[in-house]
């Protein structure tokens, strides 16, 4: 890839007829490490890159332990298993999130209990959690949605007072910080995804981080079919095959070595969007960044004003016809058939869920790509 001559943005210059909403960038030693796996034959769930990736990621998140696994969903499942969630339990979950956050609670036979989101960050509203706690509540899952850190202090204070665990779903929040500390090591455990559209990727893949040794040991046992680490083919419990491959970890090592580049690129893209979308305040609300937060901007997601005449779904269709790929914000959980509830309990999520749209956000965007996106958004919103 060639660097753009636009020094102010330092954007990657990639020619394309269509602007993709997400795209991985491999500009480090990923291929070298994968070739090493192929050359040595270490391609499955054993090999030097798995341990290396775990150790490097733990350092990145400032956690004592990191456990690599197959994807971000199983990372959440392992965290719940380690905390002993079982049938009859309840777990607090945001109303606005990707469905895996709720599904993993059901995997354990437990019930997800939803809480509405904040109007500005779209994260779980800490002020509303306690009213949803019952005598069956075991813990809280917070989601750093689209990379925006949750206000963790009130959540952790409530959890301590009520004897609940806190799991951070940081699948979209690589590099985000809360009061200067990386997310993922603030609660009992944190989980990350390395799907192909994430800030760094292993294709598929996940990671759990924790500062607690007993959680680390429990998750490693569950991850590896329940096999004793001291006696091969001796299974102490019913576990799962949730392991990451050495090939995936090799890609992850290469990506993690360049994570500062990936994070800086996101900030450059965001800066360009904020500049290009100026003057649309009455139509589009741009993402906020709270004083306590360092936002990694997995996606640059905006809200169409409920007072404007612009329809979110119509805008998505028009941009697609222009050759610009976008995504709607995640649909709220209570809209999903498996979790259907009355929307009146979640007015903020209900409103955000029909107005949010994620614009293309990735390291391979050029300055002309972003200008094109902004120009078409302005045209369809204001006719400019």
Write the layout of secondary structure elements.
Layout (H helix, E strand, L loop, with lengths): L1 E2 L8 E2 L16 H11 L7 H14 L3 E5 L2 H11 L7 E5 L5 H8 L3 E5 L21 E7 L8 H11 L2 E5 L7 E2 L2 E2 L6 E5 L12 E5 L2 H11 L22 H12 L1 H18 L7 E2 L7 E2 L5 E5 L7 H10 L5 E2 L18 H7 L2 E4 L7 H16 L2
Parallel strand pairs: 4-5, 4-6, 6-7, 7-10
Antiparallel strand pairs: 1-2, 3-11, 8-9, 8-13, 10-11, 12-14, 14-16, 15-16
Helix pairs in contact: 1-7, 2-7, 3-4, 3-6, 8-11
Any descriptors?
384 residues, alpha/beta, Aspartate Aminotransferase, domain 1, Aspartate Aminotransferase, domain 2, 4-stranded antiparallel sheet, 16% strand
Overview of this protein structure:
The chain is an alpha/beta fold and 384 residues long. The protein folds into two domains: 2-25 and 259-382, Alpha-Beta Complex (Aspartate Aminotransferase, domain 1), CATH 3.90.1150.10; 30-257, Aspartate Aminotransferase, domain 2. Helices cover 34% and strands 16% of the residues. It is built from eleven helices and 16 strands. The strands form four sheets. A seven-stranded mixed sheet has the order 3-11-10-7-6-4-5, with helices on both faces. The longest helix is centred in the C-terminal third of the chain and has 18 residues, at 259-276. The radius of gyration is 21 Å and the shape is globular. It starts with a strand and ends with a helix. Residues 1-15 have low confidence and may be disordered.
What count of helical segments does DSSP give? Answer: 11
From the spread of the alpha carbons, the general shape counts as: globular
Number of domains: 2
Give the CATH superfamily of the largest domain: Type I PLP-dependent aspartate aminotransferase-like (Major domain)
Q: Major sheet: size, sense and barrel closure?
A: 7 strands, mixed
Content-based structural category: alpha/beta
Task: Please state the CA-atom Rg, rounded to the nearest Å.
Answer: 21 Å
């Amino acid at each position: 890839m060639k660097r753009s001559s636009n020094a102010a943005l330092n954007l990657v210059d990639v020619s394309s007829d269509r602007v993709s909403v997400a795209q991985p960038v491999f500009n480090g030693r990923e291929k070298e490490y994968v070739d090493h796996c192929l050359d040595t034959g270490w391609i499955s769930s054993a090999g030097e890159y798995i341990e290396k990736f775990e150790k490097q990621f733990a350092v990145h998140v400032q956690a004592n332990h990191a456990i690599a696994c197959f994807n971000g969903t199983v990372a959440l499942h392992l965290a719940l298993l380690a905390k002993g969630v079982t049938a009859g339990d309840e777990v607090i979950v945001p109303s606005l999130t990707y469905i895996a956050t709720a599904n993993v609670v059901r995997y354990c036979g437990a019930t997800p209990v939803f809480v509405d989101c904040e109007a500005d960050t779209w994260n779980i509203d800490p002020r509303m959690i306690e009213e949803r706690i019952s005598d069956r509540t075991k813990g809280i899952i917070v989601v750093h949605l689209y990379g925006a850190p949750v206000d963790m202090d009130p959540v952790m204070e409530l959890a301590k007072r009520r004897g609940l665990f806190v799991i951070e779903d940081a699948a979209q929040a690589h590099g985000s910080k809360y009061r200067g500390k990386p997310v993922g090591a603030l609660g009992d455990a944190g989980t990350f995804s390395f799907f192909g559209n994430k800030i760094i990727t292993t294709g598929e893949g996940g990671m759990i981080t924790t500062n607690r040794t007993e959680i680390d040991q429990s998750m490693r046992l569950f991850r590896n079919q329940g096999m004793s680490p001291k006696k091969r083919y001796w299974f102490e419990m019913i576990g799962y095959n949730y392991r990451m491959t050495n090939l995936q970890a090799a890609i992850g090592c290469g990506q993690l070595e360049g994570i500062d580049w990936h994070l800086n690129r996101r900030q450059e893209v965001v800066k360009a969007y904020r500049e290009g979308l100026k003057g649309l305040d009455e139509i589009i609300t741009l993402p906020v960044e709270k004083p306590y937060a360092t936002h990694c901007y997995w996606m640059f997601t905006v809200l169409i004003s409920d007072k404007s005449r612009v329809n979110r779904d119509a805008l998505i269709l028009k941009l697609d016809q222009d050759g610009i790929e976008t995504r709607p914000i995640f649909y709220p959980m209570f809209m999903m058939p498996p979790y259907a509830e009355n929307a009146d309990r979640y007015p903020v999520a209900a409103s955000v869920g029909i107005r949010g749209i994620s614009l293309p956000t990735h390291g391979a965007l050029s300055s002309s790509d972003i200008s094109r996106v902004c120009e078409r958004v302005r045209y369809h919103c204001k006719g400019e």
